[in-house]
Amino acid sequence: MGRGRLRIHLGAAPGVGKTYAMLSEAQRRVERGTDCVVGFVEHHDRPRTRALLEGLEQIPRRELEHRGAVLPEMDLDAVLARRPQVVLVDELAHTNVPGSRNAKRWQDVEELLAAGIDVLSTLNIQHLESLGDVVESITGVRQQETVPDEVVRRADQTELVDMTPEALRRRMAHGNVYQPDKVDAALSNYFRPGNLTALRELALLWVADRVDEYLQRYRSEHDVSAIWGSRERIVVGLTGGPEGRTLIRRAARLAEKGAGGEVLAVYIARGDGLTAASPGELAEQRTLVESLGGTFHHVVGDDIPAALLAFARAANATQIVLGSSRRKAWQYVFGPGVGATVARDSGPDLDVHIVTHEAIAKGRGLPVARGARLGRSRVAWGWAVGVAGPAVLALLLSAFDPGLANDMLLFLSLTVAAALLGGLRPALASAAFGSLLLNYFYTPPLHRWSVSDPKNIIAIVIFVAVGAAVASVVDLAARRTHQAARLRAESEILSFLAGNVLRGETGLEELLERVRQTFGMESAALLERAGDVEPWTCAGRTGTGPALERPDDADVDVPVGDHMALALTGRVLPAEDRRVLGAFAAQAAVALDRRRLRAEADRARTLAEGNRIRTALLAAVSHDLRTPLAGIKAAVSSLRSEDVDWSPEDRAELLEGIEGGADRLDHLVGNLLDMSRLHTGTVTPLIREVDLDEVVPMALGGVPEGSVTLDVPETLPMVAVDPGLLERAMANLVENAVKYAPAGTPVLVAASALADRVEVRVVDRGPGVPDDAKDRIFEPFQRYGDAPRGAGVGLGLAVARGFTEAMGGSLNADDTPGGGLTMTLTLRAAATAAMSETAATEATAAMSETAATEATAATRAPVAGPTEPVRPAEPEPVRPAEPEPVGPAGPERQPS
C-alpha cells in the first residue's frame, strides 16, 4: 500500500474561495466515479459553500467534551475504517480539541496519507510557520495555529486560490463572507487593501518558489541539461578585481527589465585553494550583490570557463555577464581568455554579455600568492641534514660496503629528508654533496675525483637528477600543505567575519578587539581624517598600546579609502597577513558607517518627534483655544451691554457658559503645558489605566445632542493612556465626523478589544475621501474638498494623531462600507487586559466560529476574524476564531 497524495488549496486570506474550490474538485471527482467523502468541512453558513456539500458523503463528526462544552471534531478512526479513495479535510492548521488523538489536524492528515488515502485540504498563507513573524508585522496579530513548512512542501499539489483585494472586499461588503454586523469591523481592520495586498504577495511568492523547486526537480530527474528560459537568471562571473562592482550593477539592471529576474554572482577559485583574489574586494562585492537582491556563490574549479558554464546550466541561467579581459595584448598568446572561451562554448540557449570597464588591458593587478615560509629552525635542520648528513653517512659506510646501488639509495634518502625539513635548497645541496662523496669513495678509481666506468657516470647523473626532482616535489607538497593550512585558517576568520557582517552583530570596538586577538597585536585603532591636510582622529580603539596620532606611527597600517586607515601596534606582520587584514579594515569602515547612520537615524527620529509634538501644540492652540475664548468674550460682552435688560435666568445661563468655557480653557492649558514639557524632554504623558466609558463620553460635549451613537461596552479592558490627551483626540475626531455626516444620520462611536489592543472607531456616512487624498488628511492646515473657510483651518486630525501617537497609540482611516469614513484609534490595553482576554476566550471556547464571533461582537464590538472555528487547545492557548488580525488602518481625511 503506497502513501496517499495531498492536495492543498492555498489562499492569501479567508474568503478567497479555498473551501469552495476544494468542494468543486470533490464534486468533479465524484462525477468521475471516485470514492470521495467529507471528513471535516466548515461551510460557515455560506449558501454556495453549503450547496456544494450536498451530494457528498459526510463522515459523522466526533463530539468531545472540554471545560463543560461539547465540541465537534473529525472522527479520524471512522475515516480510517471507511477507507475512501479521497477525503476532504478543511483547515489544515486547525488545533484539535484536547482529548483527540493528535494535537493538530495536519497530524491527522499525516495518518490518513500514511494509510494510503488521498487528502484534499485548505490553508491560508498566514498559517505557515516560517511566515509567522512576517504576517505579524503586516497584520499586527501573531497566528497561534501554524503548520510546519515541511508538511506543506511535501504536498503533491499546491493550488493557489487567488482573488484581488478589491474583489474580496466586494464579496465581504455583499455579505458573502461574514454576517452584515461583522463586515464593518472586518473591512476596517484585517481586510484593509494594504493587508490583503501584502498577504497576496506572500502567497504568490511562496507558490512561485514551489513551482521553481518542482521545475528544478523535474530537470534533475529527467537529466535536462538544456536551458529553459522560464525566468531570467543572470550569472555574473567575478574575478575578485575592481571591475566586479560594475558587472554586478549591470546585471541588476538587466534583471530589472524582465519579470522575476534573478542575479547570481559566482567567483570560481582554483582547486588547489590558492587564490589571487582580494578578500576585501570579494567581501565588498558580496555585500553589493546581496544589497541588490542577488546571491553570491563560491565555486571551486581548475577550468574556469567550464566551471562557469556548468554552474550557469545547473542554475538554469539565461544570461552570463563577464567583464572584458584585463590581460595585456601579448598575454593572448597563452590562450583566448575566459570571456572568449565562454562565449564560444555557451551554445545558442545562453547569452553572454561582455561588459567594458576601466581596467581593460591594464593587467590583472592582483597579488600573486607566494609560497609560505617554512620557519628558520626548520630550514636550519634541513641544511644540517643536507650537508652534515652525507658526511656522517660516508663515515658509517666506510666500515662495510653494501654496494653502489644501496649507497646511492641511502644518500637519496638524506636528500628527501633535507627537502622535507628545509625545502628545495638544502635538498639540492644534499644531492650535490652526496654525488661528490659517491664519486670519491664508492666509484672506481676510489679516492679520486674521476670515474673510469661510464655506467657509473650515468648513475651519478641520474642520482643528482632524481634527488633534485624528488626534492622539488617534496618541497612543493610541503609548501602547499602549509599554504592550505594557512588558507583554511584565513577562511575560518573570514567566514566568522562574514557571518557577523550579515547578522549585523559586530560593533566597531568588538571588531577591533577581534583584529587585535587574531593577529596577536598590542592595540588596534581605526583612524580617519576629513581631508588630505586635516589631522588624524581616532574613531575607535582597543588594546593597551600607546594612542596613535597618525597611521605612520603604527607597526602595521592598512588604508581604507583616502581618509581612513586601520593601525595596529605590537609587531610587524608578514605580507601574506595583510590580505585578511584588508578584509577586517573594510569591515571596520562599514561598522563605523553603520554606527554613524544609527546615530543619525536616532537624531532624525528625535527631531521628527519634536516636530510632530510642536505641530500638535500649535494646532491645539489655534484650534481649541479660540472656541471657548470666543464664547467667554461673547457672554461677557452680552452681560456688559446696557441695551438689554437680562433676566436672572439669562444672566445665570451666560455666567454658566463663561464658567464652562473657563473650565475648558483651564483643562486644555494644562494639557498644553504637559505637551510643551514633553517636547523639551522634561516630562512624558501621564499614562495610567483608564476605562474608555469614563473618557469617551466626556469628549462629546462639543457636538449637538443626538448626533452621536455611543457603543462602548463596559466589559472592555482598561487602556493605558493619558485621559486628557485621549479626550482631546476623541473630541476632534467626533467633531470632524459630525461636521461631514448627513443631517439626521448619527455618527457611530464603537469600541472593541483584540489581543493586547483596544480600538475605538468613529464611523460616519459622509461623502468619504478618495484614495488620492487619504495621504494628506492628517497633515496640518489641510482641508478636504470645498469646505468653507469657517469650517476650520485643517488642524483637527493633525492634533488628534499627534496626541494619540504621544501616548503610544495610532490613528488611521479607512472607507466605511456603503460610503463614508471610519477613523480607527488604536490604544494599548492595560496590564489587566491580558486576564480579561483570557477569560473571554475561555467563555467562547465551546462555540463554533460564527457563534464565537457573534458572542464577542455582543460583548465588545464587531471585530471579524478569519474563518476557522474557535477550538481550545492545550498546551497551546485556546484558538480565538483564528483571530481576525485587526491591524493598523491606513491614513485618511483632514478637515478642520
Automatic annotation (TrEMBL):
Subcellular compartments: Cell membrane; Membrane
Keywords from the named record: ATP-binding, Kinase, Membrane, Nucleotide-binding, Phosphoprotein, Transferase, Transmembrane, Transmembrane helix, Two-component regulatory system
Topology with respect to the bilayer: Multi-pass membrane protein
Entry's EC annotation: 2.7.13.3
Biased composition (Low complexity): 841-861
Pfam family, one: HisKA
TM region(s), chain numbering: 380-397, 409-437, 457-478
InterPro entries in UniProt: HATPase_C_sf, HATPase_dom, His_kinase_dom, HisK_dim/P_dom, HisK_dim/P_sf, Histidine_kinase_KdpD, KdpD_sf, KdpD_TM
Reactions this protein catalyses: ATP + protein L-histidine = ADP + protein N-phospho-L-histidine
Gene3D superfamilies in the cross-refs: 1.10.287.130, Backbone structure of the membrane domain of e. Coli histidine kinase receptor kdpd, Histidine kinase-like ATPase, C-terminal domain, HUPs, P-loop containing nucleotide triphosphate hydrolases
Single Gene Ontology MF annotation: ATP binding
Listed Basic and acidic residues bias regions: 871-882
Primary residence: membrane
Region described as Disordered: spans on this chain: 841-896
Residue ranges constituting the Histidine kinase domain according to the UniProt record: 620-831
PANTHER family: SENSOR PROTEIN KDPD
Name listed for the protein in its UniProt record: histidine kinase
Organism: Streptomyces incanus
